[in-house]
Design goal:
The complex is a heterodimer of chains A (358) and B (549). Helices cover 63% and strands 2% of the residues of chain A. Chain A is mainly α. Chain A has a two-stranded antiparallel ribbon. Classes of the chains: A mainly alpha (358), B alpha/beta (549). Strand 3 of chain A pairs parallel with strand 2 of chain B.
Chain lengths: 358, 549
């Protein structure tokens, strides 16, 4: 059997040679690690990730918090309930409670670099605006995560079930989804906000989450419809796997890219939804504070005391933008076809592999 | 002396991956004259398709090329975009492997041919339409008047490939680059397409650069052959030289790995004809129907099918795509419900089994799927994929399971360390071995192998078939081997069953079928298999054409 011997000798090199170039990039890494590596390379997304993490830390440690019976002191010297005197010094003619935050050094005619007593200024009755914005940002971030979690869970479950089972289950679930989609989110939000707004932001976020899973469930369903036709699902079935095992162990991990990406985008939408609702007066209600509520309360002071507008706005934009960037980075990282662009510098600095056997 | 169409000298292509240039084509030299066919042969990853795309600067942005490529004495490398556009389609036309993806699904084939024509010639729409009609007639698509307005999905695979050839020929190109033009097609259709290409080449006097891994196709078409391995041209010569007197060991090995019809020794049935044991798999009058969906009527894929497989034998099931052979395989292990008839596995009737009944049957069966890339869960390490049947059958857990997985990996000759790897880190051949290991995990009595080698290169395929044979001899399982490749079935099986359009047309001993086929269709199937020998292939071709007339 001369033929067989020949083949056996060559097998190792051949098996390695196939897809060798592609394998160079993936050797010894699980898919999760590959995705992580690509995500870390995405500069915008990494920056945004640090911004968000920093912001969460910054915002949640700023004020006194009550966790159960314990009171954790914050690092900021005011709370939302404090009522210091309205300050007029250093403000323009006829204004009170302007921001003391200054970046302009003294030799340029400014107040020098420093935060001052009320860096973001004060509101009508003298409350420290920095403290208010911090509380508002806490609420907004919390709403964002709760909506993302609840919407993500329901969307994934509904989508998986209807995509996997198809038939009448799919029809019923998808018509139900259609029904939810036809009701504008803002109306649901205002009804929910009107009835449950006074129960606190937690409740509000929970109910909003119950209505924000529709887009995700459609995407997950589509993903399941394609994945269930793949042969590894048949292989699992032949191995004796139950439907539940096939859904959760075999298909869902393959759909996780779609889920993560759309949940991030859902979250950035959630923060805007909460803002819009509070602005309309249906979301978070006073005496609680949220970024949208702050903007709504001081909308008429836009011309005279614009800082009451700037700072909540700045936080909304920063949070929503960062989350969007992270979602974008994740999308790129999960897309196997997307390759990094090669710059001229890359081309020139690249090493040349020895031409083996040439 | 015919005109020189293509001249490649010192051609190099490298790919940039993570800061390193990896060579894909190294120092290639090639000359091609009008009316001639040069074949580039090699396995996947050897750089043959890269060469084809590199000729016209169609490679991705992470490639760099050097050397010289001249088409009709004009330099193509580093030519500006306008020159390249002028030459693409006009002088150099491409035929790709997968006509379904290479044709745009939202335009009719007529529109796509007209588009090519009007891009390159100053032509009115009516005139272009007439020319397109002429081309479609030229490539023998039935009913050209109607077909010109058809969309790609309305045509069969062979017709699609013809449409693509018509599009490629639209401008009478001097050079036709055919990148695996028949790999996606059945043998009988492949023979027709090759006949067509040969005829057109003579008629239009164009040169063909044929890229393929199939030595049979090469023997059928090529005047000159260039053998590539890992980007290096290992041998270059006339077809005669390469086939009859290969110099380089790699060429010899490549030729040795090609399965030839009728070359393997006789295999005795593992049981005596008179005292047959109880069959492992018994299909009686099985009819399988895909139920109607919406406006698509119900489709009968398999009709009144009878087959018995006895312990320890390999039965080859052969047929063209769409003949229902895969459907039979899947129904045999209960993946598809049957409409009529009876299926028995080791004496148990599973024709109307519930999920629970099936799970007990599944200990006796295993299946190897066609596409190893799709049949392994990309998110599971292969050790888990292999161990899953054992785990779910509650035979072993934890350390005992790990031990069994290692034994299985040893059996299919994969290193034990591979159990923590993911499918994408393995090559096609390795993945398919994982597929076998998983199928054999529960030491089944019956193994269904559904075209397990169709996605593999010839030499990997040869190794895979050896392994399968060794395992079968050791473990003595019965096997239903489904394939469209008669040569592969010839190597493995004791008996052969031939299917056409859902019907079993012939069934019997391997040698009886291959040497003395009773059925017309079987005969046609056998004569269409290309043989890796130019002289013999010529004789067979003439015989086939004569039979057609």
């Amino acid at each position: 059997m001369a033929k067989k011997k020949n083949v056996a000798v060559e097998t190792t090199t051949q098996d390695g040679g196939e897809n060798a170039i592609f394998n160079k990039e993936t050797e010894g890494l699980s898919q999760g690690q590959i995705v992580l590596r690509r995500f870390v390379r995405h500069r915008g997304a990494m920056t945004s990730l640090f911004v968000i993490l920093g912001l969460v830390l910054f915002v949640f440690t700023a004020l006194d918090q009550k966790i159960g019976p314990f009171k954790v002191p914050g690092w900021w010297h005011y709370n939302t309930e404090d009522l210091p005197e309205l300050r007029a010094e250093g403000c323009k003619e006829g204004l009170v409670g302007c921001p003391t935050f200054s970046l302009r050094p003294k030799f340029l005619g400014g107040a020098g670099f420093g935060l001052g007593e009320h860096p973001f200024g004060q509101d009508n009755i003298g409350r420290d605006y920095f403290a208010l914005v911090m509380r508002g940002a806490q609420r907004s971030i919390m709403v964002m995560f709760v909506i993302g979690m609840i919407g993500g869970t329901i969307g994934t479950i509904v989508g998986s079930i209807s995509g996997f089972y198809r038939g009448w289950i799919d029809a019923v679930l998808m018509r139900f989804t259609d029904f939810i989609i036809t009701i504008p989110a803002i109306i649901i939000g205002s009804v929910v906000g009107y009835h449950f707004g006074n129960l606190g932001v937690g409740f509000l976020a929970f109910y909003l989450g119950l209505f924000s899973w529709t887009g995700l469930s459609r995407l997950v369903r589509g993903e399941f419809l394609t994945l269930r036709e793949r042969e590894f699902v048949d292989a699992a079935r032949v191995a004796g796997a139950s439907n539940r095992r096939i859904i959760f162990k075999h298909i869902l991990p393959n759909a996780v890219g779609v889920i993560i990406v759309s949940v991030t985008l859902l979250m950035s939408g959630a923060i805007l939804l909460e803002t819009a609702l509070s602005y309309l007066g249906f979301g978070v209600v006073a005496p609680d504070v949220s970024l949208g509520l702050l903007i709504s309360q001081y909308q008429d002071s836009f011309t005279t005391r614009p800082w009451l507008f700037w700072y909540p706005g700045l936080f909304i934009i920063t949070i929503a933008l960062s989350i969007n960037f992270i979602g974008d980075g994740l999308r790129d990282a999960f897309d196997p076809r997307q390759r990094r662009r090669i710059t001229k510098k890359d081309r020139e600095s690249a090493k040349v592999v020895k031409k083996a056997g040439a | 002396m015919s005109e020189q169409v293509l001249k490649i000298s010192d051609f190099n292509v490298d790919f940039w991956v993570d800061g390193v240039w990896y060579p894909a084509v190294i120092d290639m030299n090639l000359e091609l004259n009008a009316g001639k066919v040069t074949a580039i042969v090699g396995e996947s990853g050897s750089g043959k398709s890269t060469t084809a795309l590199g000729l016209m600067s169609l490679l991705a942005s992470n490639a760099r090329m050097s050397g010289s490529v001249q088409v009709k004495q004009e330099e193509m490398l580093n030519a500006n975009a306008a020159t390249l556009r002028k030459f693409r389609g006009r002088e150099v036309a491409y035929i790709f492997q997968e006509p379904m993806t290479a044709l745009n699904p939202v335009y009719t084939i007529g529109f796509q041919i007209v588009e090519t024509l009007r891009n390159h010639f100053d032509m009115g729409p009516t005139q272009a339409h007439e020319r397109a009609l002429e081309l479609i007639t030229l490539v023998d698509i039935p009913d050209p008047e109607k077909s010109i307005n058809k969309y790609p999905h309305q045509l069969s695979g062979g017709q699609r490939q013809r449409a693509m050839i018509a599009q490629a020929l639209a401008c009478d190109p001097g050079l036709l680059v055919a990148d695996e033009p028949t790999t996606a097609l059945d043998v009988t259709v492949q023979a027709e397409i090759l006949d067509l290409m040969r005829g057109l080449k003579d008629k239009l006097n164009s040169a063909i650069l044929l890229i393929t891994h199939d030595m049979g196709v090469v023997a059928d078409m090529a005047d000159e052959i260039l053998v590539m391995k890992d980007g290096i041209t290992v041998e270059h010569g006339t077809a005669d030289q390469i086939f009859n007197n290969p110099q380089h060991p790699y060429t010899q090995q490549l030729l040795g790995a090609v399965p030839k019809l009728g070359s393997s020794k006789k295999r005795a049935l593992p049981y005596s004809e008179n005292a047959k044991p109880a069959p492992v798999l018994k299909l009686t009058d099985v009819t399988i129907e895909y139920p109607k969906r919406g406006r698509i009527p119900a489709f009968t894929a398999v009709k009144n099918f009878n087959l018995e497989i006895y312990p320890g034998e390999i039965v080859g099931l052969v047929g063209e795509s769409g003949s229902g052979k895969t459907t039979v395989g899947r129904a045999a292990i209960g993946l598809i419900p049957i409409k009529d008839g009876m299926i028995e596995i080791v004496g148990k009737d599973i024709s109307h089994a519930t999920q629970k009944d099936l799970s007990s049957i599944r200990r006796h069966t295993g299946i190897v799927f066609q596409d190893p890339a799709s049949s392994l869960n990309p998110r599971l390490p292969i050790g888990e994929s292999i161990g899953e049947p054992i785990f779910l059958a509650k035979i072993a857990k934890g350390d005992a399971l790990a031990h069994m997985i290692e034994d299985l990996l040893d059996q299919v000759e994969l290193p034990r360390s591979y159990r923590n790897r993911y499918p994408h880190e393995l090559s096609g051949g390795q993945r398919q071995r994982v597929g076998i290991a998983r199928a054999l995990a529960l030491t089944p009595d019956l193994l269904i192998a559904d075209e397990p080698t169709s996605a593999l290169d010839v030499s990997v395929q040869a190794r895979f078939l050896d392994l399968l044979q060794e395992l079968q001899e050791k473990l003595k399982f019965a096997c239903l081997f489904i394939s469209h490749d008669l040569a592969v079935v010839d190597i493995l099986s004791h008996r052969i069953a031939v299917m056409q359009n859902g019907l079993l047309v012939e069934e019997g001993d391997r040698d009886a079928i291959l040497q003395n086929p009773k059925n017309d269709y079987t005969r046609r199937l056998i004569s269409a298999v290309p043989v890796p020998d130019p002289a013999e292939q010529r004789i067979r071709r003439e015989a086939r054409l004569a039979a057609k007339k």
